TrEMBL record:
Pfam families: DUF3617 (PF12276). InterPro entries: DUF3617. This is DUF3617 family protein. Residues 38-50 have a biased composition (Pro residues). It comes from the Bacteria. It comes from Comamonas piscis. PROSITE patterns: PROKAR_LIPOPROTEIN (PS51257). Residues 22-51 are annotated as: Disordered.
Length: 199
């Protein structure tokens, strides 16, 4: 359960970073359970503007997300992702939008196509789709302030908490930072995403 929860949390961060997830990417059980306590890019990669500010926060196209993890669980999470990528079949990777993900220089790097539908999703719908697969989690508390969105939720009667902040520098660049605390162990994940061209 701890590994699955960590993986799902990472998926929220990654998806938020890329501002959209496909239906298949929303299922944290896509990779093998032994996979890991960490990001499916953005995984992590992976990866959602609020309706009030949806004046095109994210431009559809080909995006690259770079995920960095730090803190007591950070290296463990990165190692878990690397092992998961090695053990997944090409079909599993494709279903989880991880077919071109790689770990290099201590960072998880992934490219994916963001469709207009994905770019139009808001953080609330993303959170709802992820948290429904995480029993015992509170509804996400989401706030929007200009070009920033924040989200907080807890799971297991406060045994795990996550705070996330997304900053949209422009429709072609954004950064999502999350801080997770689980059983006294912490991890900070930063996903920097940028549009790199057309799909």
């Amino acid at each position: 359960m701890e590994k699955l929860t960590g993986f799902a949390v990472a998926a929220v961060v990654a998806c938020a970073g890329l501002m959209g997830c496909s239906k298949k990417e929303e299922t944290p059980s896509s990779p093998p359970a032994a996979a890991a306590p960490a990001p499916a890019p953005a995984a992590a990669p992976a990866p959602a503007p609020a309706p009030a500010v949806a004046a095109q926060k994210v431009q559809p196209g080909k995006w690259q997300a770079t995920t960095e993890m730090s803190g007591p669980m950070g290296q463990q999470a990165l190692t878990g992702v690397e092992q998961a990528l090695k053990s997944m079949t090409p079909e599993q990777k494709k279903a989880a939008n991880l077919d071109n993900a790689k770990v290099e220089g201590g960072k998880l790097v992934q490219e994916m196509c963001i469709t207009p539908d994905m770019a139009g999703k808001n953080l609330q719908s993303l959170a709802d789709s992820q948290l429904k697969n995480m029993p015992g989690c509170s509804p996400a508390d989401i706030k929007t302030d200009g070009n920033k969105e924040s989200m907080r939720f807890t799971c297991g009667e406060g045994k795990m908490s996550m705070d996330l902040e997304a900053v949209y520098t422009s429709p072609t660049e954004n950064t999502v930072t999350s801080k997770m605390d689980m059983a006294g162990q912490g991890m900070t994940t930063t996903v920097t995403s940028k549009r790199v061209g057309d799909c």
